[in-house]
Amino acid sequence: MVQVGYVLSGLIAVAILFLGSRFWLAPATASAAFGIADSPPPSIGLTAWLSVKGTRDIAAGLFVLLLMANGSPRLLGEFMLVASLIAFGDMATVLRSGGSRGAALGIHGLTGLVIVATGACLILGAN
């Protein structure tokens, strides 16, 4: 079970790093794919805010890799459970903004559930 948790953690880390990088390199594309309704057109201010989000995503992906290298499945699992709140918060933000229900549940909600399952695999497997 721990190996499954580590594989999923690695995939999640790579995905988060990709998404964070996309907010830096192609902010308009990344913003459009996020699911928030009536997102404003790209501007200097919006691009700066999207870069802030990208930086935080990149840091979150690096945290996962750091904890994977640490060799403590329980600590990694606990981190993943807490980190799932980011995906669920994104889901709530998309829903609250009148964005696509499919994007909110299918992208952000499903991601949150996968992160919870990953954390559970790591925690239960560590005992």
What would a concise description of this structure say?
Pfam families: DUF4267. With about 130 residues, the chain is an all-alpha fold.
Would you write up a description of this structure?
- It is a single chain.
- By secondary structure, this protein is mostly helical.
- It has one domain.
- Helix 1 runs antiparallel to helix 3 and helix 4 packs antiparallel against helix 5.
- The longest helix has 27 residues.
- It is globular, with a radius of gyration of 15 Å.
- Keywords: Membrane, Transmembrane, Transmembrane helix.
Summary keywords:
mainly alpha, 0% strand, transmembrane, 127 residues, transmembrane helix
N→C terminal distance: 11 Å
Please count the beta strands (DSSP E, at least 2 residues each): 0
Strand content: under 5%
- What would the average pLDDT be, to the nearest integer? 93
Treating each run of at least 4 consecutive H or I residues as one helix, how many helices? Answer: 5
Class inferred from helices and paired strands:
mainly alpha
Count of the separate structural domains: 1
Largest sheet: none
- What low-confidence regions span 5 or more consecutive residues with pLDDT below 50? none
Cα shape: globular
Please compute the radius of gyration using only Cα atoms: 15 Å
Helix content: over 70%
